[in-house]
Design a protein that fits this description.
Elements: E1 2-3, H1 8-13, H2 21-36, E2 40-41, E3 44-45, H3 47-55, H4 57-77, E4 79-83, E5 86-91, E6 97-102, E7 108-113, E8 122-128, E9 139-144, H5 148-152, E10 166-169, H6 172-182, H7 185-199, H8 201-210, H9 212-226, H10 232-256, E11 260-263, E12 267-272, E13 277-283, E14 289-294, H11 296-300, E15 303-309, E16 322-328, H12 329-339, H13 357-381, H14 386-413, E17 415-418, E18 422-429, E19 432-439, E20 443-449, H15 454-457, E21 459-466, E22 472-480, H16 481-494
Antiparallel strand pairs: 1-4, 2-3, 4-5, 5-6, 7-8, 7-13, 8-9, 10-11, 11-12, 12-13, 14-15, 14-19, 15-16, 17-18, 18-19, 20-21, 21-22
Helix pairs in contact: 6-10, 7-8, 7-10, 9-10, 13-14
Length: about 500
């Protein structure tokens, strides 16, 4: 059996990092003692105080040895191997635990070459199945690069040839288009917040050293002078939104750059990443469903992003389970059967009637109508913040108008079609359009929900739940209640 990379010792040692509190207490005790004995003059310790502290250094070193020793023991007794089609992971130096995972049950195997691990010839390995804790990796190892072949040799080899093999390298300009279209200021703000809180003092020192706050205020004032009628606060917010969007775009470009996909109808191989390179090996028969994603712009230009829902794929923070970033309609139709055999688009059998338009646009309209009176009320309460309140109203109006347009498009495009063994479902969630293509075996629950007032118009909401590692539901709104019950009863009869 083999062991993980020695760097893992540091990770395991962090579990006992709390032991450092004892050297800290000893240091504070000696400091207080030296203060009482007048051995501290200003900020300088006397030679007696320094000698007294050094006399107890053995205790600090003992604690450090205990921390690293614990990490070493965990690392030394944690072993893994692949034998006879089984992945074995053994750990524990007091009570031994052995986990056995059949290779054929692995839904997704991920090998991650992080930038900071490359000098040490190390890589992360994630092995996932459809069981285990929700949205968590079943087995995670930090392995040596030479040990990768141990796992890859146990997986089915990709078959080459015109009949089976399909390969697609995504050009850089397509990745750039994908990054531009699917980036958002909200995601960029989250990335910046992660850097701010996790980076802590380094982030704040960097901002202070570069004088970013002062430069932002200066740029905002200069732009406000040139753009007559726009207050500096509005310019500052606009710059921050644009900067957040650029951060999100840069993150997507780095994460999905160098994208390549291969498939032979049995296994799907995906490679992506410029700085941190990730290799995904996905078993096609473990894929739950295809999710074709679009926003309003991509829907107008008839392009989309193809993603797959498979246990273990896209679990990493900030990643999307993308199979191909940007596809035209023709490319999508040709690609889907190679990834999910038998998949195709079906015409909507059940869709919302146009008379139910109010159920789609009611919330954007109500939100839009509430902005002005709410703003007036807040201005009377807080007159000093009138400029900020007006700016907030404008920033809320823009997404509401965008959502209003999306809901109108959703009214004419949403729907579902269920055949004997396939389901094709089109719906809108947030600001994105989704088309789900799956086997009917992937449906775990169907729920018809009807409010009291919907009985008058004979409409209802339909919720379809699909098998996935985390609960995944699709909502269709304002469908004809009689047609919905009829279609579902027909589907249940054919099962």
């Amino acid at each position: 059996m083999r062991r993980e990379h020695p760097l893992r010792i540091l990770k395991y040692s962090m579990k006992t990092i709390w032991l450092l509190i004892f050297p800290l207490i000893r240091g504070l005790w000696n400091l207080c003692k030296a203060w009482d004995q007048k051995q501290i003059q200003g900020f300088h310790l006397s030679s007696d105080a320094v000698f007294h502290w050094l006399h107890g250094v053995w205790f600090d070193l003992l604690i450090l040895v205990m921390i690293l020793g614990y990490g070493f023991l965990v690392w030394f007794f944690r072993k893994f191997t692949v034998k006879d089609g089984q992945l074995y992971v053994q750990d524990g130096f007091i009570f031994t635990r052995i986990r056995i995972m059949p290779i054929k049950n692995i839904s997704a195997l991920t090998i991650e070459h992080a930038l900071f691990l490359r000098p040490f010839h190390a890589a992360y390995l994630y092995a996932d199945t459809a069981s285990g804790l929700l949205a968590s990796t079943d087995i995670k190892l930090l392995i040596r690069k030479r040990d990768e072949s141990l796992f890859l040799s146990a997986l089915p080899k990709l078959r080459h040839g015109k009949r089976h093999h399909y390969e697609r390298k995504v050009k850089l300009w397509r990745i750039l288009v994908f990054s531009v279209i699917f980036s958002s200021s909200f995601s960029g703000a989250l990335y910046f917040a992660m850097f701010w809180f996790q980076g802590g003092r380094i982030a704040r020192d960097l901002i202070n050293e570069l004088q970013l706050t002062e430069r932002l205020n200066l740029i905002s004032e200069e732009l406000a002078e040139r753009l007559a009628g726009i207050p500096p606060m509005a310019v500052t917010v606009g710059i921050l939104i644009l900067a957040s969007w650029l951060i999100s775009m840069l993150n997507n470009l780095i994460r999905y750059g160098g994208f390549r996909m291969e498939s032979d109808k049995r296994q799907l191989f995906v490679r992506s990443g410029l700085m941190t390179t990730r290799y995904f090996y996905i078993q096609n028969h473990k894929i739950n469903f295809l999710d074709i994603r679009q926003n309003l712009l991509t829907k107008i230009f008839r392009v989309c992003s193809l993603t797959v829902n498979c246990p273990g794929y896209g679990n990493q923070r900030g990643s999307l389970p993308i199979c191909l970033p940007i596809l035209t309609q023709k490319e999508l139709i040709a690609t889907m059967p190679l990834i999910f055999p038998g998949s195709r688009f079906l015409k909507n059998q059940l869709c919302p009637p146009q008379k139910s338009w109010w159920g789609y646009i009611c919330w954007p309209v109500i939100g839009f109508a509430a902005i002005y009176p709410t703003g007036e009320f807040l201005e009377h309460l807080f007159p000093t913040f009138q400029e900020i309140i007006n700016l907030t109203q404008i920033t809320i109006v823009i997404p509401l108008v965008w959502k209003f347009i999306i809901q109108i498009v959703s009214l004419f495009t949403s729907g579902v079609s269920i055949s004997k063994n396939r389901i094709c479902l089109r719906y809108c969630k947030g600001f994105a359009f989704h088309t789900i293509i799956a086997d009917t075996d992937s449906i775990v629950k169907v729920r018809i929900h009807q409010h009291v007032w919907q009985k008058w118009s004979n409409t209802c909401h339909l919720r379809i739940y699909f098998r996935a590692e985390t609960p995944y539901q699709c909502n269709l709104y304002c469908l004809n209640a009689d047609q919905t019950r009829e279609q579902l009863s027909h589907f249940m009869t054919n099962l």
